[in-house]
Every structure is written in C-alpha cells, then in structure tokens.
Design goal:
The protein has nine helices and nine strands. The protein has a seven-stranded parallel sheet with strand order 3-2-1-4-5-6-9, with helices on both faces. The chain has a two-stranded parallel sheet with strand order 7-8.
Length: 242
C-alpha cells in the first residue's frame, strides 16, 4: 500500500477511463482529486465510499488554471501525481471541419494538459518528487482516417512527455504516457458483425483491451513499480499494433 496522503489529480474523472483510473488509485491507497466538468452518480459514489474528492472545473479555462491549482494545493496539500486524461473527440474530414472545432480540440486535448502540468509540477518540484501520466492513444502514432486533429493532439502529448521527462527527471519526477487502443466499452458492445470482427482481428489474442487494463497500467506507473520508468509510452491495445 502507498501512503494514503499522496494526492493524485485525475482529469476527466466523471466516467469511463478517468473514473476507472480514480477507482484503481483509491484502491491502491492514493488520495484522488477527481476533476470533471460535471458530476456523475458513479463519481459521487466513489467520493462517498473511498478516499476521493470531486472537483468541478472546466479545463478549457486555462486562464483560470493558475489560481485554481493554487486553491487545490491549499485545500488538499502537496500534489504528488497528475493523470492528464480529459479529452474530447474531434472526428471528421479536415477539409470540412469547422475551425472552432479544431481550436477546441487543440485547447482541451493538448494546451490544457500542458498548462495544468506547468502549475501542478511546481508542487512536485517543491516536494522533490512526483509522477505525471499523460493519456495519449495509438491513433497518435498509427493515424486514422477522419481523426487527423485528434491524432495531432495525441501525438503532441507523446512529444510533450518525452521532453518534459528530461526537464523533470533530476527532481525525481517521472513523466510517462499511456496509449490505449480500441477499448472494450459500452460503445464497442454496440458494434456488430464484420466491423467488430475486423477490430478484434488486429489483436493477436482476438480481444479488445479493457478500461481496467489501462487503469492498471496508470496505477503501476504511479506506484513504486514505475520508479525506473521515465519518458516512455506504454501501449495498451491487446497487441493490435504489434
């Protein structure tokens, strides 16, 4: 078990992967600051039953982030970990995509985690230690038709991770990426026939990765087992890109 007083911020914690990461971290003894734009019944239950604290904040408001992070630190204490999970989809053919949609995706998926990391890392530098995990995607390296903007933001996180790990490594702060593939979720349960079979055929095991498997990987990097892992991208895709 880890020190329960180690605070970890998880963004996009309302549901899905962010909620699963928060649940796994709480189970491992971390104190989770679960950030979401809106609450959910699942997140409320976690906060009531475990060592998690809900913080409602719109991460697109980068101009308010400095003051907000300062307030979090005053109320919760030094921040040990940060999981940059929050993101929005940006699907569509680039030639017909509205510029506002492009700008929003770049802001939420790339600018926001960079700015948030800027201010949270100050707390880690003062404590001479910490962990940062950025949630990317295999799309950032493989590409996918109709997801060019989304892929650009996820590839940007990988480059950000590699460079920042060199900046912060001497202060005992590890910065890593987790790149999920196509996940077994409620959305994929609705896929039928050849489309689902085609996705599964990409995996040597014939399976999709699970949200829980990705959350386990993040928890590993946040714990003692990840102490010697820095500046890398851990792919969790059931081997589909092997």
């Amino acid at each position: 078990m880890t020190d329960p007083k180690k605070n970890v911020i998880v963004t996009g914690a309302r549901r899905g992967l962010g909620l699963a990461i928060s649940q796994k971290l709480v189970a491992q003894g971390f104190r989770v600051i679960a950030v979401a734009r809106q609450g959910s019944e699942e997140l409320t239950r976690l906060c009531e039953s475990g060592d998690a604290h809900e913080e409602l904040f719109d991460l697109s408001r980068t101009e308010a982030m400095h003051e907000w992070v300062g307030d979090l630190t005053r109320r919760h204490g030094r921040i040990y970990g940060l999981v940059n999970n929050a993101a929005i989809g940006a699907d569509g053919v680039l030639a017909t995509m509205h510029e506002l949609d492009i700008a929003q995706a770049l802001q939420v998926n790339l600018q926001s985690p960079i700015v948030l990391t800027k201010y949270v890392s100050r707390s880690m530098l003062l404590g001479r230690g910490g962990r940062i995990v950025n949630i990317s995607s295999i799309i950032g390296s493989t590409g996918f038709s109709g997801l060019s903007v989304y892929a650009a933001t996820k590839a940007g996180l990988i480059g950000f991770t590699k460079s920042l790990s060199r900046e912060l490594g001497k202060a005992n702060i590890n910065v890593n990426c987790v790149a999920p593939g196509y996940l077994e979720t409620e959305m994929t349960k609705g896929l039928q026939g050849d489309k689902l079979a085609s996705i599964k055929r990409r995996s040597p095991s014939g399976k999709l990765a699970t949200v829980e498997a990705v959350a386990d990987s993040v928890t590993f990097l946040m714990g003692e087992g990840g102490a010697m892992i820095n500046g890398t991208t851990l792919t969790v895709d059931a081997g589909s890109t092997a």
